[in-house]
Amino acid sequence: MIPETMKAAVIDKAGPPDALRVASVPTPKLKDHHVIIALDYASVGIWDARQRSGAYGPLKPGTILGADGSGTVAAVASGVTRLRVGDRVYSYSYGNPDGGFHAEYVSVPANRVERVPEQLDQKVAGAMPCVALTAHAGLHVLKMKIGDALLVFGATGGVGSFAVWLAANAIGATVAGTARADAQAYLRDLGGTLLSDGATNAFDAMFATASGSDLAALASHLKPKAPIAFPNGIEPEPKIDGHPSRPFDGEMSREAFERLNTAIGTRTIPLKIEEFSLDRVADAHRRIEQGHVEGKIVLRIR
After folding, report:
1. Where are the domains of the chain?
2. CATH code for residues 131-248
3. Which of 121, 130, 222, 284 can bridge 68 by disulfide, Cβ–Cβ 3.0-4.6 Å?
């Protein structure tokens, strides 16, 4: 039975991490074409910190942040036939009007929910929907195929981790990336190698998860006219003269999840995760604002 109230991280107006508070709030009601998920883990992205800070505009009092996570289906609307109570699922649903994933329960459109592959644990599943769907979309935009060579700029962050892992393991591409010295072992775990200074004109495409002054220096490693894909919202846009830019968005849909699950297959994912309890949500925000996060940050909800 779903309780009338739940614990959630809420914010009443934009501010620093300490503007977040954990409170008892009404549990969302089941709506047509929705499911309610009892959450186990929810991811924390830099977009959550930016929204909290007011970068995206004023916040409605009582806002619950969080765009993705994993849990168990607790209720299903009468018109939903694909999912059942008790299913182990993950979801990516940005901008829920009834509240986000940093709570014990979330109500989301059923077409933004998919069953978790059996071999993946809930923590990994809760960390990955947004970044994995984004990475998968970028590889599709680049039309990567077996034997291609991919350069990933920012290879050990959330989106970068999945760009490396999916390209190397699901597609069969050769992948090299940029990484700090203490992140190079993780890059190898994902299936990538560290970019070599001698790899001139070696790469068919670049996947950029960030921008910055170092980006232009990578031009010599790309083949002539090799495309650069990057998620919309990166500022300034990652651009290198002579290389076409291909901005894209991750897709919040059942079909996108199905394509992702097919790509994952029966493999496990060596995703690096930093875990915080829901009560330490402000600490999670402070951590992501420090930068240089390898993999993903998650909140343990229950």
Report:
1. 5-128+271-300, 131-248
2. 3.40.50.720
3. 130
CB atoms within 10 A of CB 201: 11
> Distance between CA 20 and CA 65 in Å, rounded?
10
Among all chains, which residue has been given the structure tokens 């993946």?
120
207-237 pLDDT tens trace: 999 888 788 888 899 999 999 999 998 888 8
Q: How far is CA 74 from the centre of its chain?
A: 23
Cβ–Cβ < 8 Å for 68, 298: no
Rounded CA separation 4/117 (Å): 31
Is the previous residue joined to 236 through a cis bond, with omega within 30 degrees of 0? Answer: yes
Q: Which residues pair with 289 in a beta bridge?
A: none
The strand pairing partners of 38, in sequence order, are: 72, 105
C-alpha torsion 61→66→67→69, nearest 10: -140
- Record the pTM: 0.96
Closest CA to 275 of 37, 50, 18, 42: 42
Give mean pLDDT, residues 245-250: 94
Q: What is the CATH number of domain 5-128+271-300?
A: 3.90.180.10
Q: Give the tens place of pLDDT for each residue, 111-122.
A: 999 999 999 999
> Is the per-residue pLDDT at 197 higher than 80?
no
- pLDDT of res. 216: 84
Report how far residue 41's alpha carbon sits from residue 172's, in angstroms, rounded to the nearest whole number.
Answer: 30
